[in-house]
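Write out the 3D structure for:
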Amino acid sequence: MTSVKEFRIEREPTATTLGRGSFVFTDDYSVFDWGKMPDEIPDKGASLCAMGAFNFELLEAAGVPTHYRGVVSEETGEVVPLAETEVPPTEMAIDLTQVPDLPHEGRSYDYDAYHEAAGDNFLIPLEIVFRNSVPVGSSLRRRTDPADHGLDFAEWPEGVVQLEEPIVEFSTKYEEGDRYLSRREADRIAGLADVTELEAVAREVNRVVTEQAAEAELVHEDGKIECLYVDGEVRVADVVGTFDENRFTFHGQQVSKEFVRQYHKRTQPEWVEAVDAAKQEAKKRDVADWKSLCEASPESLDDEVIEAASDLYAAGTNAYVGRELFEAPSLVDAVGAVRDL
């Protein structure tokens, strides 16, 4: 289903009923939409599974419906709450919804066909993005003006802008080159789901994750959710509030996949530039497959970078869930090692 987790199906969903299955989290990673990168990051998969499960359980306790059923115990193979596991899990049990094909010609996508096939039980083909801050490199600065968000700036300031109220946006989910949408277009793509409800769910998820992060002295900068629609209800799907889906900082240092992204920008700028050029060329040619146009490939990371990334994921998860699930350094030490790279 994605480049970093596998998908198991126990029972297929139908037009009227949810199915059952699971995510199996791997140690693969992806940056810049490339897909599977040359290396693995040890314990990354278990970190994402544990952190995602912890957040789903927080959301259920807060009254937010989700597709989560539990984690699969490494010891017994049973589906259990995260607290009942001793070994960090790598498999998450979930309810399954329908995900029809999204037909397209070039970069023109047929969402009407998607919803005709989906009926009343489907994965909403949107990502709902929430931002608690606007860093210097944010795409928001290129696409919008501060006044568009009710901010009292004539233009974006040079430093990070901390937001009193989160900004919520919508982007496509299944297009080869995802793009941000107007609210009206997002509402059309959402089908039977209502964007006002999607926004409200995103804001509640953001609140829960932000408050939990603060318990571990982590600052929750931004993130996203995906949702399914069934029986007239929106439920949170995919995985929520992990170091891949969201950006967190600890005393100013990235504790998320963003660290790996920035490392590639510093050490493999030619590849990063080639990716950007390929995406622009694909847009110009009106084709979806930009990777076939890319003239460079990523190189492997040094062993010390892989080790530092592994410790960061594990230490960050321990701090976030408030439990020593992993044998890892303290978050202070893990962050210090990353900062020295």
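The chain has one domain: 5-339.
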